[in-house]
Amino acid sequence: MARTRIIPNRQNIATFLRSPEMLALIERKTRAVADKAAEVSEAGGQFRVDVEAGEHRVRGAVIGDYSTADPEVSRRALLRALDAAKAVD
User: Fold this and answer.
1) pLDDT tens, 10-40?
2) How many whole angstroms separate alpha carbon 44 and alpha carbon 83?
3) Sign of CA pseudo-dihedral 70, 74, 75, 76
4) Whose CA, among 7, 10, 33, 52, lies 20 to 30 Å from 67?
5) What is the pLDDT of residues 36-56, one digit of tens each?
6) Whether 61 contacts 50, CB under 8 Å
């Protein structure tokens, strides 16, 4: 039986990954995680959201808990908050 070969259209994929819709989606999801992390944080939770539209794709990051110097507190809050992104469309 012959194998099906799929050749991705890299230009269209790159265009999709840089689109305004993708930027909005990434921003909504990262904000949801930051909000949930602040809610569950033991230290009060001051998380920063960074969304950047780069040359190849849009990136989003939730950056540490600025209300504590303990990285474990920040890490625990972020790990518990990851499911919040699933609920956001």
Assistant:
1) 888 888 888 999 999 999 999 999 999 988 8
2) 19
3) positive
4) 52
5) 998 888 877 789 999 998 887
6) yes
* Exposure on the CB side of residue 53, measured as CA atoms within 13 A: 13
The model's pTM: 0.77
CB atoms within 10 A of CB 14: 13
Joined together, the tokens standing for residue 70 give 């303990």
Rounded CA-CA distance 47/66 in Å is 6
The residue written with tokens 């989606």 in the block is 25
Q: Which two tokens stand for residue 89?
A: 């469309």
Helix (H, G, I), strand (E, B) or coil at 7: coil
Which two structure tokens, joined as six digits, stand for 36?
């949930």
